[in-house]
Amino acid sequence: MKILTALPLLAALAIAAPLAAHAEDDGIDPVKAKAFDNSVFAGPIGDKAFACFVRHYDASHLAQHRKQKVTAMKLLVTAENHPGEPTSYAYKAGFQLRNRPGNFDGGSSCGHMVDEDGTKEISFTCDIECGGGGLDIAMSKDNKSAIVHLEVIGVLDRKHPEHDELTLEGGTDDKVFRLDRVDNAECAELMTGHKEVASLQRK
Length: 203
Description:
With 203 residues, the protein is mostly beta strands. The protein is 13% helix and 41% strand. Strands 1, 2, 3, 4, 5, 6, 7, 8, 9 and 10 form a ten-stranded antiparallel β-sheet that branches.
């Protein structure tokens, strides 16, 4: 797969990331990129847009996937426009893990990516700093679910962010997650600022 854009991180969502070439400069079809954005955010972005996707895995599923570490996942994808600047994209995800109590959060900036397998499908690629892993976000055909492909990310205990970062890696049963679209207020816990939470709950 070829990474076509890596846009700047939204404030308060993740770590800083370097600015790379814009989609328009790298040959990605802007019409297709806009259509993908509309599928993620269920409509035009405007000044700011949010999309929330959630999955809780029941005991039956986990019994069939004994190597799956993630027992629940929330994904908040954000887009923001500022005059004279390219659109910024970011994600923040919350995880619950098997055999480890607590809630763990991770996030980074995102950019458009296109597959080179002949389909030219567009998705978001969200890399951690220095290109050491990350995750990709695609959409289901009906736009009701996000398909998350996990490589490796760092996550922190939400209640104890001063603790060491935990590495979450896409193993045998943690490579691909299908998360269902829900009301954006379901992801309010992933926002830390009062203004951001209020804005999310109004969407």
